Amino acid sequence: MPTDLPDLRQIKTLVAIADTGSFTKAAKQLFVTQSAVSHSIRGLEDQVGAKLVERFGKRISLTQDGVVFLRRSRRALHELE
């Protein structure tokens, strides 16, 4: 299991994807390109060693691991606020 922690940008990207249901909409919300969102999520998945997002064309769904990671990420973001 990787020892590096995900960065805040990656966590916010996952939350935006979950909230919007789309990489494109998440990119608009975060003021970045869709490619940046894809790279961020791919890096996050590599870092945690699990697939977090299932892609179905332009639609997405979180995997079981993604749901758990999202729940923990929301708690962590809430604590940081």
Briefly characterize the structure.
This protein is 65% helix and 10% strand. It has helices spanning 8-20, 23-30, 34-48, 64-80; strands at residues 53-56, 59-62.
Structure characterization notes:
With 81 residues, this protein is mainly alpha-helical. The chain has helices at 8-20, 23-30, 34-48, 64-80; strands at residues 53-56, 59-62. The protein has a two-stranded antiparallel ribbon. Strand 1 and strand 2 form a beta hairpin. Helix 1 (8-20) packs across helix 2, helix 1 (8-20) crosses helix 4 and helix 2 crosses helix 3. 26% of the residues are buried.
The biggest sheet, with number of strands, parallel, antiparallel or mixed sense and barrel status, is:
2 strands, antiparallel
Task: Provide a count of the helices.
Answer: 4
- Strand tally: 2
H and E string: HHHEEH
Q: Name the average pLDDT.
A: 92
Question: Order of strands in the sheet with the most strands?
Answer: 1-2
What would you call the structural class? mainly alpha
Radius of gyration from the alpha-carbon trace, in angstroms? 12 Å
User: Helix proportion of residues, in percent?
Assistant: 55-70%
**Low-pLDDT segments:** none
Distance between the termini: 28 Å
Approximately how much beta-strand content do the residues carry?
5-15%
Large-scale geometry: globular
